[in-house]
Amino acid sequence: MLTETQVKVILILLDNEGHAGWELANILEMNNSNLNPILKKLEQIGIICQGVARRSTQKRKRHKEGDYKEFPYYLSNNLDNIKTMIKELIQSGRILDTGFVLEIIKKSKYIKSMRRKFGKDLTKTIGDEVRENYPPYANSRFKVIRQLVDRNKLHAPFLEEDFEESIENDLEDPTEKHLERDLKMPSELELWYDKYLSNRLDQE
Predict the structure, then answer these.
(1) Are 12 and 51 in contact (CB under 8 A)?
(2) I need a surface site. Which of 4, 88, 96, 168 has the fewest CB within 10 A?
(3) CA–CA distance, 153 with 45 (Å, rounded to integer)
């Protein structure tokens, strides 16, 4: 299972631009020393990897001017590692957090580049992983949960066409109505990501 910070790292790296450790630490408002073990863990399980060295853009106050190198982190471009990432994300949070993250992945520059590389194999790999591990799809009452998600304009999970069916049955069970009320609240992760995107736009 991934920690909240590890999930945030994945969300940041979805822009496919590569981010050095110091930059990730700044975005997450953490010390480098605290973030490094988290990045190493993601690297060990194959979700992220370091790219080739590039000139650093980090502003330095106490060092001489000159060229400094940094090694940016990227999400893995290996199909097995993408499968691992999806599985770990599914196992790491509440249903809505997972659905939100998978929706961001679906629209990301990263996944577009992986589609160009792997084509239908990518969709099948992710689809199989979601069907097997994501609770609504593994649950016999999936249709009810999907209806709640659609009704409240929330984020449906990643599958491309497998679950694009229309659902017309009304909800009767009081438990389901309670779930409907809960689904209207954005997750903390979604609130953080909206703030992150807003800060990025301000800096551009």
Answers:
(1) no
(2) 168
(3) 34
Of the listed ranges 8-17, 24-33, 66-75, 181-190, the least confidently predicted one is 181-190
Residues 6 or more apart in contact with residue 119 via CB below 8 angstroms: none
**Alpha carbons 169 and 84: distance in angstroms, whole number:** 35
Q: Would you say the C-alpha torsion 180, 184, 189, 194 has a positive or negative sign?
A: positive
pLDDT tens digit string along 21-45?
999 999 999 999 999 999 999 999 9
CB-CB contact of 2 with 98 (8 Å): no
Sign, CA torsion 128/129/130/136: positive
What's residue 179's pLDDT? 46
- pTM, 2 dp: 0.78
d(CA 53, CA 71): 5
What does the pLDDT read at residue 141?
A: 55
Q: What is the mean pLDDT of residues 161-187?
A: 44
Where residue 153 falls (left for φ over 0; alpha for ψ -120 to 50; beta otherwise) is: left
CB contact burial 146-167 (16+ within 10 A = b; e otherwise): bbbbeeeebbebbbeeebeeee
Query: 21, 73 in Cβ contact below 8 A?
Result: yes
Query: What tokens appear for 50 in the block?
Result: 């370091």
